[in-house]
Fold these 2 entries.
Entry 1:
Amino acid sequence: MAELNPDAPMPEKGLVVRGLRMAFGDTVVQHDLSFYVAPANIFVIMGVSGCGKSTLLRHIIDLQRSDVGDICFDGQRLINDDPAERAMLQSRIGVLFQSTALWSSMTVGENVALPMQLHTQLRPPEIRDQVAFKLALVGLAGQESKMPSELSGGMQKRAGLARAIALDPDYLFLDEPSAGLDPITSQRLDALIMRLRDALGVSVIAVSHELPSIFTIADDSIYLDNESKTAIAHGNPRELVENTPEPRVRAFLKREPIDEPARESA
Ligand SMILES: Nc1ncnc2c1ncn2[C@@H]1O[C@H](COP(=O)(O)OP(=O)(O)OP(=O)(O)O)[C@@H](O)[C@H]1O
């Protein structure tokens, strides 16, 4: 269960977000966000367009900062000003952006090797072995010398995943992983994400509004509400769809119209 008692002691393992407020200038995107992501769980951030899902992801991985609230990985605050400690925490985080963001001038193998070259002392043969291992994990064995432009959209996502797990992270962040993929490729990617969670014991935090994907992969979730600007539901989406008392959450999870005037920003 994702809901977090703000007065509870900090858990030693897992990701804790406590009392987070996110804003652009005077415009508050979300406030009072408190939740817990358990180790080796797949946690999905849900909500309609513009509710603040990507902004939340950016705060958790420290690309954006807030003056209000705490974000802690395994009991340690991510946001602190000790560069060595920050680098250590950052190395435990893998990220797959929506755009995949592979370097187009580098081969697939060079893309996956890059984080190891930048952040580890591994020697070239060890890096080569690790690249081969990570590509095999995502079903791209032997594709090292391909250029990203030679891969299909689904294969590019998998190459992006191989790069995201290059440093054996404890936490893997995925921004709309299925965006732009056909249903079959999307289903395969879901299966891969669950396999990686099981094989590596990694906690996965994904932003998604793809319902089939949410119902398949999520152990736990949070629903960010566009109206009240805070989370109005926490829990397993398969249980929420049956039990939530919140009409907007039910409408989202059942793809049903809602009586209230919709205020989605396209
Ligand atoms: N750099 C920015 N400056 C000002 N406002 C921004 C900026 N980035 C996002 N916003 C606003 O913050 C709100 C949340 O945006 P965000 O992209 O996090 O939503 P989202 O839930 O991820 O949307 P989508 O599902 O469409 O990707 C939106 O109203 C958006 O217009």
Entry 2:
Amino acid sequence: MLEVNDLEVRYGAIRAVRGVSLKADTGELVAILGANGAGKSSTLMCIAGALKAAGGSIRLDGQDVTSANPEKMVRAGVATVPETRDVFPDLTVTENLTLGSYTRRSDRAGVTEDRERMLALFPRLAERAAQPAGTLSGGEQQMLVIARAMMSRPKVLLLDEPSLGLAPVIVDQIFEMIRTLKQSGLTIVLVEQNARKALSVADRAYVMRLGKIAASGTAAEIGAATDLSALYLGG
Ligand SMILES: Nc1ncnc2c1ncn2[C@@H]1O[C@H](COP(=O)(O)OP(=O)(O)OP(=O)(O)O)[C@@H](O)[C@H]1O
């Protein structure tokens, strides 16, 4: 479904991503793990079309999408949840969800149906449907941005650090949500510093270090072979 080959991302002279290759098959949940500054977000944002690749290629369903902009990527079926977790604070939960479907303006019935499906799937959001999104808790806002990304009917969902800054019990709820979405056959690429949590839902994982893939394997292999605490410390 998604194939990244020899990807390079640069910020001026800084080579943040150095020849990264990875793939995600249909319905797979692939985690990208690594310490602060390893290049995880840069890799993800480049796949999303928000950063220009300085080299390498990105293919979606066999099509080359290396130089596609973010809107084209959404239309091609790739939805992204950046770590900034931005909701439209003055708009309600329902209105925020509707805005996630901007690429499907002519499909009003489909949009309503999907919105209802998201609210049915995630009751916590349904209970707050008429509430301004700015008044939701951090965890609820994270749920909302993930549900909003689903409103474009993606084939691939890119998630950047969904657990960031959330209490452990809330992180559990977010991962439960990710598990639910995976069950629908969605392909997911999950960037996480919380390696243990990510490996609990992932099929496969890549470990990044200094802009490169340092290890890859099934979630079980990576969990067994990697010193997960070192990932947090920059090892
Ligand atoms: N806008 C930018 N300008 C210059 N350098 C940047 C920029 N964004 C990231 N970098 C650098 O690129 C490298 C990779 O950063 P990136 O954010 O991709 O890592 P990360 O693994 O996602 O880390 P984190 O978990 O802290 O987000 C780091 O050295 C970082 O300082």
